[in-house]
């Protein structure tokens, strides 16, 4: 199971120490939120797990084995931007992973093999609420739809660890709530560990099982270069969320709300439309 | 209403666009008429009727000596050289640009030499090319290739390097090898830039072509212009210049259309 162990991890850029002696064990199927002020190294930390950056000292173990030095299909990623390929259609984006994994020369499959991958990709797109958009290009999708696409694309590889770098930070609140519900469902259904960098504490508490806050303990100007960030808080959400099990959180139960097709007139708008929303508005007014 | 807010509609835009051309032609006609009134044998600004007659002779009457239609023979000769030159340039620029754009090792090895070569004034190399490669077609094509390739290669390397790092990492998490990153992620995304780059290099390519033809050729658009220069044959030079310009414009429009057709996503992403 995809447990991650981080031992005495340091990251330095020249003289600048960014992360200082981080040790951490992440349980399989956890949903970890990394929070902290800007520039505290949480994205750097995520990139080291991804393999995009290397540690200066210390090691990261995935299932007891040291991580490969470069990104690979065992770790999926969704960034805030640039996560999908603008020159491929929605379907092409989702098919890209399986196609490149199996066709090492051309990067494309043909005939029956292609149809099989396409069927799988369509099922995945339906799963994230993008059915019907297969032939569009990413530029024709809204921001929320693009992030759904990025999730679908990453999940096609069945990664053991899914890394999210402020994936929903640029989305409108309404859209964000929908995609949170989707994210929660995917985490419940798919066997993977999720690590998410976020600025939004509310998002962290809504989704995760554990919140880790990075902070620089010493932050006076003359100390900044020589002291990096460490883990300032390590909060286990209580009562615990467990992947694949019911919880007592009201918010976790609306499993259908992330699918725009079931939302009727609510899709794409936050305006009051007659029932619950209207009441909230009148109560506020 | 402020002038900055005045937006011409389609018809007005078209008329405004045509206006400078009309003025240009009118200026020519008036100037030509004035000079011819003074001296009927004036050769500098031939009358439109003379131009029309010359075009007719060049394009539709076989040459008495060779039996060729001069305009078409020249056009064919020049466009063949241009196509070879630009074809070789485009292919090599694509390979160099792609490799230097995505592989740090190749960038370390190739970027300095490409930058250096792109600074060599190509026309200064023309004598060397004539001496080494002879006066035939090869030296003319080589001049275009040398003049155009380094700049296109640098442009494509920049385009490839400008792709967000996130996309490359994403491709790695989708199990792509360096080869697959090159051919499925980077190459398709710099192809639109390749076409744009080619459009921009069309002008320089024609410059090198005409320069090479002016010195040594037996057919070609540049050759003809410099040949008839001795006789002050403005009635040939003007139509040839206009024809070269028209060819460039048509190629440019063609490439632009091709880009939109082949890469519809490249318009949306802007």
Automatic annotation (TrEMBL), chain A:
Cited Gene3D superfamilies: P-loop containing nucleotide triphosphate hydrolases
InterPro entries the record matches: AAA+_ATPase, ABC_SmlMolc_Importer, ABC_transporter-like_ATP-bd, ABC_transporter-like_CS, P-loop_NTPase
PROSITE patterns to which the protein is assigned, alphabetical: ABC_TRANSPORTER_1, ABC_TRANSPORTER_2
Keywords (A to Z) from UniProt: ATP-binding, Nucleotide-binding, Transport
Location of the region described as Disordered in the Swiss-Prot/TrEMBL record: 262-285
Amino acid composition bias (Polar residues), ranges on this chain: 262-272
Domain ABC transporter: 4-241
PANTHER family: BICARBONATE TRANSPORT ATP-BINDING PROTEIN CMPC, SPERMIDINE/PUTRESCINE IMPORT ATP-BINDING PROTEIN POTA
Protein name: ABC transporter ATP-binding protein
Organism whose genome encodes this protein: Paenirhodobacter populi
UniProtKB/TrEMBL annotation, chain B:
Pfam families assigned to the protein according to its UniProt record, in alphabetical order: BPD_transp_1
Superkingdom, natural source: Bacteria
Keywords: Cell membrane, Membrane, Transmembrane, Transmembrane helix, Transport
Annotated compartments: Cell membrane
GO cellular component: plasma membrane
Domain annotation ABC transmembrane type-1: ranges: 79-259
Bilayer disposition of the protein: Multi-pass membrane protein
SUPFAM superfamilies: MetI-like
Regions crossing the membrane: 12-34, 82-106, 113-135, 141-163, 202-225, 237-258
Any single GO BP term: transmembrane transport
Similarity remark: Belongs to the binding-protein-dependent transport system permease family.
Name by which UniProt lists this protein: ABC transporter permease subunit
């Amino acid at each position: 199971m995809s447990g991650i162990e981080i031992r005495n991890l340091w990251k330095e850029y020249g003289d600048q120490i960014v992360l200082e002696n981080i040790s951490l064990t992440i349980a399989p199927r956890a949903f970890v939120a990394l929070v902290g002020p800007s520039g505290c190294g949480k994205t750097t930390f995520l990139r080291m797990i991804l393999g995009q950056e290397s540690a200066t000292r210390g090691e990261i173990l995935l299932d007891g084995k040291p991580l490969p030095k470069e990104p690979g299909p065992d770790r999926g990623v969704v960034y805030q931007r640039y996560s999908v390929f603008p020159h491929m259609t929605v379907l092409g984006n989702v098919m890209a992973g399986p196609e490149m994994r199996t066709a090492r020369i051309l990067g494309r499959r043909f005939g029956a093999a292609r149809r099989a991958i396409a069927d799988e990709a369509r099922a995945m797109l339906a799963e994230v609420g993008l059915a019907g958009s297969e032939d569009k290009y990413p530029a024709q999708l809204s921001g929320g739809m693009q992030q759904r696409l990025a999730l679908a694309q990453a999940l096609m590889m069945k990664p053991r660890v899914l890394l999210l770098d402020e994936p929903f930070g640029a989305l409108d609140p309404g859209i964000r709530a929908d995609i949170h519900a989707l994210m929660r469902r995917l985490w419940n259904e798919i066997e993977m560990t999720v690590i998410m960098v976020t600025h939004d504490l509310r998002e962290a508490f809504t989704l995760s099982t554990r919140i880790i806050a990075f902070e620089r303990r010493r932050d006076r100007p003359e100390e900044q270069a020589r002291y990096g960030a460490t883990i300032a808080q390590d909060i286990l959400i209580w009562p615990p969320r467990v992947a694949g099990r019911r919880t007592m959180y009201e918010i976790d139960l609306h499993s259908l709300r992330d699918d725009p097709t079931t939302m009727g007139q609510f899709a794409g708008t936050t305006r009051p439309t007659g029932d619950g929303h209207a009441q909230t508005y009148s109560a506020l007014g | 209403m402020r002038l900055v807010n005045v937006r011409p509609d389609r018809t007005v835009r078209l008329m405004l666009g045509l206006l400078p051309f009309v003025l240009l032609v009118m200026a020519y006609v008036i100037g030509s008429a004035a000079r011819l009134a003074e001296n009927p044998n004036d050769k500098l600004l031939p009358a439109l009727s003379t131009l029309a007659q010359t075009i007719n002779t060049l394009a539709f009457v076989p040459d008495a000596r060779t039996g060729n239609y001069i305009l078409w023979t020249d056009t064919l000769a020049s466009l063949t050289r241009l196509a070879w030159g630009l074809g070789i340039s485009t292919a090599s620029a694509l390979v160099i640009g792609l490799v230097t754009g995505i592989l740090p090792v190749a960038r370390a090895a190739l970027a300095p030499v490409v930058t250096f070569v792109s600074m060599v004034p190509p026309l200064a190399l023309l004598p060397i090319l004539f001496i080494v490669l002879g006066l035939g077609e090869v030296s003319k094509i080589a001049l275009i290739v040398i003049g155009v390739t380094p700049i296109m290669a640098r442009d494509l390397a920049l385009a490839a390097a400008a792709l967000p790092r996130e996309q490359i990492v994403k491709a790695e998490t989708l199990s792509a090898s360096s080869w697959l990153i090159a051919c499925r992620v980077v190459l398709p995304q710099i192809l639109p830039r390749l076409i744009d780059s080619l459009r921009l290099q069309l002008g320089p390519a024609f410059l090198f072509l005409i320069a090479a033809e002016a010195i040594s050729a037996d057919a070609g658009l540049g050759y003809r212009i410099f040949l008839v220069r001795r006789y002050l044959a403005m009635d040939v030079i003007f139509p040839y210049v206009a024809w070269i310009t028209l060819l460039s414009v048509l190629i440019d429009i063609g490439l632009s259309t091709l880009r939109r057709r082949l890469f519809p996503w490249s318009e949306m992403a802007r």
